[in-house]
Known about the structure:
Layout: H1 8-16, H2 19-28, H3 35-39, H4 46-58, E1 66-67, E2 70-71
Antiparallel strand pairs: 1-2
Helix pairs in contact: 1-4
Amino acid sequence: MVKYSDTGLDRTFAALADPIRREILGRLTRGEASVSEIAEPFSISLPAVMKHLSYLERAGLVSGAKKGRVHK
């Protein structure tokens, strides 16, 4: 069995493999947005959007901040 190391490039490609994450990245290229604003065009729950965002964060493609009760 071949063993692959978990490189940053692997995480990046894995993050970009999902069409929803690619759409989220496309939305964020237009500027900052709250999680609710990002979730608006999708028919998925806010927790699911948060999971997608955390995956993108681990890959180093986005960064987030929390201001009060609003995640950006």
